[in-house]
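Open question from group meeting: does this chain pack into something compact, or does most of it stay loose? Before anyone orders reagents, we agreed to write out a predicted structure and look at it together. Recording both the input and the output here so the notebook holds the full record.
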Amino acid sequence: MDDCIFCKIAEGKIGARIAHRDNDVVGFYDLTPQAPVHIVIIPRQHIERISDMSEKETSLLGKLCLVATKLAREKNIESSGYRLVINCNKDAGQAVFHVHLHLLGGRKFSWPPG
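Structure tokens returned:
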């Protein structure tokens, strides 16, 4: 997508503080962090929302989770705990329509979330 900010970050057209980059996935620090560790993990492939994914993207979704786990370990939040969040559509809080996973950690979370 030409106007997708996350696609532009993945392509290196917009600067971001990168936490992870490979052929399929990019992870970058959120500009308005909601926790001491707040990394947004995106597929390079533009998919607007999680509900648009199909079985052919199963391994891509798995890779997003594996990258989150790797980053949680690197940021030393694996043992204390972390939260993975995927919002779908406006009422759930999706502000950028490119599938993304939030890795949040470094503080205690409550339930239910916001």
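Observations to bring back to the group:
The helical segments are 5-10, 58-74.
Residues 58-74 form the longest helix (17 residues).
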